[in-house]
Amino acid sequence: MDVASLLRCPQCKATELSVQSKQMICAECGYCCPGRMGFYDFMDQAMNKRVASTAEQRFMESELVARVYERVWRPNFVRLMAGKGAEALTGGFAGEFFIHKNSLSMDERDGPWLDLSCGPGMFSRAMASASPGSWVIGLDIARSMVEVAASRGRGYDNLVFIRGDAHELPIDDGCITGVNNSGALHVYDDPEAVFTEILRVLKPDGLFVGSTFAPAKSLFGRLSSQVAGIRRFAPSELRAWLSRVGFADYEEVRLGDAFIFRVRKP
Ligand SMILES: C[S@@+](CC[C@H](N)C(=O)[O-])C[C@H]1O[C@@H](n2cnc3c(N)ncnc32)[C@H](O)[C@@H]1O
Fold first, then answer.
1. What's the rounded Cα separation, in Å, for the pair 152 and 38?
2. Which of 17, 185, 260, 262 has the CB geometry, 3.0–4.6 Å to 212, for a possible disulfide?
3. Which domains does the chain have, with CATH numbers?
4. Does residue 239's CB lie within 6 angstroms of at least one atom of ligand 1?
5. Does the C-beta of 180 come closer than 6 Å to ligand 1?
6. Rounded to two decimals, what is the model's pTM?
7. CA of 63 to the centre of ligand 1 (A)
8. What is the pLDDT along the chain (266 residues), one digit of tens a residue?
């Protein structure tokens, strides 16, 4: 399957995209996106640029943070925000990916998969290895992140990176088996718009697996999220919210002041 058949034009929303000489071209409106540096930048010309609204998102857009994110930024940030009990998240990526992979039922299902807000692509690469023969789309809004993700993802023939906005996914309706969304809910301007988009792009019975921060138990945890401008989600509220949007079968694993959840598109 050609990856272009999973996408929709970021300009006119038609599903008439095809890849020609490394360019993504829309037969409907003539939109043309060069596949530069190993990714497609759908934010460049076609979409209104969303401006980073949190301090954390401004950091995400820095080239330095994108480069040191996986080894330095992420483990320390998660340790600070998730506190005691989050060892599955802070004790190495293998344990964390194991939970996501099983929650997405990657051993039993074929893709395509979407790693939404992929950052430098740590999950995207692991997903591409876990599901050879299925497309994995890594999508993020920060150019610096997608550049690093694309350079680290070179050599995977089932992995493609797109710079795009989670609030307006350039992906066709009902074509994705599972959406992975690790540690990004707290940076979205409008999580409900993102949930609605995830529901739209999933196939019936498709799975949405995410992780985020829960209300902190300690004063230190509460203060650090205030300083970083981090929104925390009460699991019971998130469960009700996702069900209002149209998801079913909410489940969660609590890890300190963070949790991993899974819902299904009916
Ligand atoms: C904390 S990082 C998480 C990265 C990765 N998923 C992980 O678990 O390490 C949050 C990511 O969300 C991205 N992001 C923020 N707003 C976004 C949006 N509107 N659309 C897509 N990605 C967005 C940021 O650029 C950043 O890479």
1. 10
2. 185
3. 37-264 (3.40.50.150)
4. no
5. no
6. 0.94
7. 14
8. 789 999 999 999 999 999 998 899 999 999 999 988 789 999 876 555 666 666 677 777 888 888 988 888 888 877 878 777 777 666 678 888 999 999 999 999 999 999 999 999 999 999 999 999 999 999 999 999 999 999 999 999 999 999 999 999 999 999 999 999 999 999 899 999 999 999 999 999 999 999 999 988 777 777 777 777 778 999 999 999 999 999 999 999 998 889 999 999 99
